[in-house]
Amino acid sequence: MNKEYSLFDAHFHIIDPRFPIVENNGYIPDPFTIHDYLARLDGIQPVGGAVVSGSFQAYDQTYLLDALEVLGPKYVGVIQLAPTVTENKLITLHQAGVRAVRINLMRGGKEQLQYLEKFAKSIFEIVGWHIELYIDSADLSDLYQIIINLPAVCIDHLGLSKVGFSTLLKLAEHDIHIKASGFGRVNFDVVTALKEIYSINPNCLMFGTDLPSTRSPRPYHDNDIKLVTEAFESEAVNNILCMNAIEFYKI
To answer: Tens of pLDDT along 87-135?
Structure first.
């Protein structure tokens, strides 16, 4: 990575065996601790990042609170929560560094759609958090109207598929944020997609390593960052790798 640029890693997972892990569709991930994460990015030294809860962590909060305490105030948490969470609990989590709720529609979370709109508006009103959707772009058209009416939303991994990518571009026009992450998960040309999205909304793309890339056909590679630095001019690189996420997560 060119040292001229800073990285705010907007999407990575910490898998610490000291805390609960839940089997998801027969899958249990290997450990990937804070030490493993920092060692993997040795030489890059992120200025901060977003620790994202995976399906295999369900509603556990202990691992995330521990990770945020160790990593420090430049890191935030993206958590999975039951819609019955209390206002006091939200405030406590916010004080600990949580800044968003993830709704995982790819790993058995479709029942959450029934309360998506109400829940998203409630958490935004109470603590100013946004919703992060792990969803295939092919399913975006059915939720388009709901999504654009939510206070703040982010779509994971460039929406994953070429089918529905046109809907993703329309969402970018409405200031829906999009994670430039999981490049090994998508079925289209990443550079072309990034340039199309950036041309529509230069403020919405946020790079994430997706480490340790659980269940990804091709895990994160250092060249994923190089792909961004070589495809864009310096201002755009700084936006995608750092500033867009810092502003969105209110660091």
So the answer is: 999 999 999 999 999 999 886 656 667 789 999 999 999 999 999 999 9
- Encode pLDDT of 139-150 as tens digits: 999 999 999 999
Specify the pTM.
0.95
Burial 219-238 (b: 16+ CB within 10 A, else e): bbeeebbebbbebbeeebbe
Looking at the DSSP bridge assignments, the partners of residue 8 are 48
Quote the tokens at residue 246: 């810092």
Instruction: Spell out the domains of the chain, with CATH numbers in brackets.
Output: 8-248 (3.20.20.140)
Token pair listed for 137: 């772009």
Cite the beta strand spans of the chain per DSSP E: 8-12, 48-52, 75-79, 98-104, 130-134, 153-155, 177-180, 205-207
User: Residue 36: in which H helix or E strand, if any?
Assistant: helix 34-40
How far apart CA 180 and CA 242 sit, in angstroms, is 11
